[in-house]
Amino acid sequence: MKELKAKIHQAAAAYHQELINIRRELHRHPELSKQEKNTAAFIASRLKEYGISFKSGVAGNGIVALIQGEAPGNHCVALRTDMDALPVHEASDVPFKSVNPGVMHACGHDVHMACLLGAGNILQQYRKDLRGSVKLIFQPSEEVFPGGAIGMIKEGVLENPRVDAIIGQHVIPTLHAGEVGMKEGKYMASTDEVYITVHGKGGHAATPEMVIDPILMASHIVVALQQIVSRNANPATPTVLSFGRIMGEGRTNIIPDTVSLEGTIRTFDEAWRAEIHRRIVEIAQSVAEGMKGTCEVNIVKGYPYLENNPEVTAKIRSAAIDYLGEDHVIALEQRMTAEDFAYFARQVPACFYRLGIRNEAKGIVHNLHTSRFDVDEESLVTGAGTLAYLAISLLNDLKR
């Protein structure tokens, strides 16, 4: 493996400019969830160029490629990337700025795709060293429920050949370029969306005795619901209930008939997750009724919590240390963000790890999902090379 490791380092470095070009082309032409048609066509063109066999149109715009190893072994490892962009208007004035107004790769999916294409190119070049096969999964629609992972699983992406373990890589701005981070066990939270519509009786703001104020009701509901976390949640189980949008179409002197609330639920326990849903409905409706109004509650169930398989993650951590050095492999804490990679992790042993992209000297410090998000493109070399080396190392371990 020592000689192969050196070859992968050299190949990743040699492909650096190509990786930059791929990333910038994808960044320049972002597409929203379920609309990744041109993105898929671009990926397909690169896979053809690399001589990698693939299938398009999986669960919409998804692509599944297969690299068959030539060394003895019949195990299969999958590497997964997401493809979709976000409805964010890019504020940075980089030369490869998004040409699609209001759409931006603000979560690094352009980097993920570039790294997976780079890793695929490397693995195809060194397939004689693969003890089994590697699937490259290009998944659409990660950013919106129900997510593209479910559809790809239903269409057999984990079969023929059966996937023994799966790896996902995602950028993170808190780690520097050249670093990766990972955590065994429960890593990312489940996520659900909460929609509450409060009904009252609107009227003139100067005659409050003649109205049933839905703004006041909504305010009390938001405050009352906070007790679910502060007084009902087990402190040992991380839980978040946040509201990010309140809409009441009134004016300074007009009280509206209805107010809408939109929020999110995050946690790490399925039984408690169901209990939160029940408590939200119970509290919201009782508060509204106690103030002579009514409310409707709609909770859209999203992704489950993401759990990294301890055994697979330990193997990947060891391989990452071997490839990058111990100082460049960082232990991570749990996060309340969510990922539909969790569905893959419920089917086969999985590890979802992080790729550092931060560089203060270059001003690359902005968070995910923001209009000024960017990455240090040196991270592309780390991302592509690490993915390739982890796939080869894990296949070697699975063979034993």
Q: Can you characterise this structure?
A:
This protein has 400 residues and is α/β, with parallel strands linked by helices. It has 2 domains: 2-188 and 305-399, 3-Layer(aba) Sandwich (Aminopeptidase), CATH 3.40.630.10; 190-301, Alpha-Beta Plaits. 36% of the residues lie in helices and 26% in strands. The chain contains 11 helices and 16 strands. It has helices at residues 2-14, 16-28, 37-50, 109-125, 148-154, 214-225, 227-232, 270-290, 310-324, 341-345, 379-399; strands spanning 53-58, 62-68, 75-82, 132-139, 165-176, 180-182, 185-188, 190-199, 203-204, 239-247, 254-255, 258-267, 294-301, 306-308, 329-331, 350-358. It has an 8-stranded mixed β-sheet with strand order 1-2-4-3-5-16-6-15, sandwiched between helices. A hairpin with a 3-residue loop joins strand 1 (53-58) and strand 2. Helix 4 (109-125) packs across helix 11. The two termini are 15 Å apart. The model has no long low-confidence stretch (mean pLDDT 97).
